[in-house]
Amino acid sequence: MKKISLLGATGSIGTQTVDVIASNPESFSLEALSMGRNLEKGLEIINKLSPKLVCVQKKEDAEKLQHDIPAQTKVVYGDTGLIEVATFPDAEVLVNAVIGSVGLAPTLAAIETGKTIALANKETLVTAGHIVMEAASKHNVRILPVDSEHSAIFQCLNGENEKEISRLILTGSGGSFRDRKRSELKNVTIEDALNHPNWSMGAKITIDSATMMNKGLEVIEAHWFFDMPYEKIDVVLHKESIIHSMVEFIDGSVMAHLGNPDMRIPIQYALSFPERLEIKGSKPLNLWEVGKLHFSQVDYERYRCLALAFQAGKEGGTMPTVLNAANEVAVNHFLKGNIEFLAIEELVERSLDEHEAVQNASLEQIVEVDAQTREFVQSLITQRW
Ligand SMILES: NC(=O)C1=CN([C@@H]2O[C@H](COP(=O)(O)OP(=O)(O)OC[C@H]3O[C@@H](n4cnc5c(N)ncnc54)[C@H](OP(=O)(O)O)[C@@H]3O)[C@@H](O)[C@H]2O)C=CC1
Ligand SMILES: CC(=O)[C@@H](O)[C@H](O)COP(=O)(O)O
Ligand SMILES: [Mn+2]
């Protein structure tokens, strides 16, 4: 029985993790969870899986929730509450499925207590990959990928000698506007941007997918997960999202991981690893139904955010921290209708241009750069919009 703590239980990855746990009661139990402000969904999960500890974002919500649940379930709140859930002593695995760099501190805290990390929250590795990987190595902690591409690569690698890898090839769908030219992106709506062709996901990652910043964040994530130089990481457009990523070896062999676009598969694999469990209620992949798989080269002028992510990753230091923080603020404003779609890449680029990278930054420096970038982007938005 694996005992699990789950951050971001009410989100897209969180609710699918709850499904996986609930479908395998003999293998997994949910010990502690966090939610943001969706108390209704949170209550449903608490009633289903009876965790011992629950964290909400706001103090007033903690008081409200405690009324509706059994007294033996403790309710905490805020950033310290997130750390309590992440380090809950009864749990051996932390699934981190919160959105944004708010996931960094609880990940580090869980690593310090020796928990295995099942990481969906890619912003954690983008913001402070060197600190997270160093902490994991120091505490002999395993970080298992949940992101579909990284789970695919992890499975293709299957413990192969890293010297024999010539390239990691990440697939990207191209997002909601993949069939539009750059000139057609000027007045796109939030609703259109949220309409991903293959995956049903949270709002922020769906916008990231439309700008292909998601693939950029994943390139940086892959760099840290697999200790791979950026020169050996490639992206190919693949509109069906059936091949989740590939690994090319020095002898020319290419291993690919295929499956229907269903996040319960990589979530369950991260939880069951090193074993596999039968997946319940998932449609088998019938390639004759898919018919054709398409591939094309990325146009880096069209997908500016992906180019910026490669640039930030190669420059290293605090550049990816800036890339991520600027993107988080810009996407948030786009989702509120405050800025247009193309302003996202513009704001990220301005932030990177203004920043001088700090190499081997400490956690304090990372936190400061993250906060300064957020302020900078906010001030640009206040001035112009
Ligand atoms: N969705 C997907 O298929 C995939 C997602 N990922 C990654 O997984 C992570 C989660 O994505 P996704 O599930 O789509 O996101 P969602 O927006 O659907 O869910 C985010 C979760 O985090 C909670 N939350 C939001 N802000 C805060 C905060 N400030 N403090 C505490 N909790 C907060 C939300 O609470 P509430 O809703 O209650 O307010 C919710 O539970 C992201 O890093 C994403 O990039 C990776 C691969 C695929
Ligand atoms: C499901 C998942 O892992 C997402 O990160 C997905 O990859 C998004 O699709 P894109 O390929 O459009 O970025
Ligand atoms: Mn992904």
Automatic annotation (TrEMBL):
Binding, NADPH: T10, G11, S12, I13, G36, R37, N38, N121, E123, G202
NCBIfam families, sorted: Dxr, PRK12464.1
Annotated 1-deoxy-D-xylulose 5-phosphate reductoisomerase C-terminal domain residues: 143-226
Annotated ranges, domain DXP reductoisomerase C-terminal: 258-375
Pathway stated in the Swiss-Prot or TrEMBL entry: Isoprenoid biosynthesis; isopentenyl diphosphate biosynthesis via DXP pathway; isopentenyl diphosphate from 1-deoxy-D-xylulose 5-phosphate: step 1/6
Organism: Exobacillus caeni
Protein name: 1-deoxy-D-xylulose 5-phosphate reductoisomerase
Annotated 1-deoxy-D-xylulose 5-phosphate reductoisomerase N-terminal domain residues: 4-129
TM spans (from-to): none
Catalyzed reaction equations: 2-C-methyl-D-erythritol 4-phosphate + NADP(+) = 1-deoxy-D-xylulose 5-phosphate + NADPH + H(+)
Molecular function in Gene Ontology: 1-deoxy-D-xylulose-5-phosphate reductoisomerase activity; isomerase activity; manganese ion binding; NADPH binding
One GO-annotated biological process of the protein: isopentenyl diphosphate biosynthetic process, methylerythritol 4-phosphate pathway involved in terpenoid biosynthetic process
Biological function: Catalyzes the NADPH-dependent rearrangement and reduction of 1-deoxy-D-xylulose-5-phosphate (DXP) to 2-C-methyl-D-erythritol 4-phosphate (MEP).
One Pfam family matching this protein: DXP_reductoisom
UniProt family annotation: Belongs to the DXR family.
Essential cofactor(s): Mg(2+); Mn(2+)
SUPFAM superfamilies, per database record: 1-deoxy-D-xylulose-5-phosphate reductoisomerase, C-terminal domain, Glyceraldehyde-3-phosphate dehydrogenase-like, C-terminal domain, NAD(P)-binding Rossmann-fold domains
Keyword annotations from UniProtKB, A to Z: Isomerase, Isoprene biosynthesis, Magnesium, Manganese, Metal-binding, NADP, Oxidoreductase
InterPro entries the UniProt entry points to: DXP_reductoisomerase (IPR003821), DXP_reductoisomerase_C (IPR013644), DXP_reductoisomerase_N (IPR013512), DXPR_C (IPR026877), DXPR_C_sf (IPR036169), NAD(P)-bd_dom_sf (IPR036291)
Positions of Mn(2+) binding: D147, E149, E218
Residues involved in 1-deoxy-D-xylulose 5-phosphate binding: K122, S148, E149, S173, H196, S209, N214, K215, E218
Source species taxonomy: Bacteria, Bacillati, Bacillota, Bacilli, Bacillales
Gene3D superfamilies (UniProt xref): 1.10.1740.10, NAD(P)-binding Rossmann-like Domain (3.40.50.720)
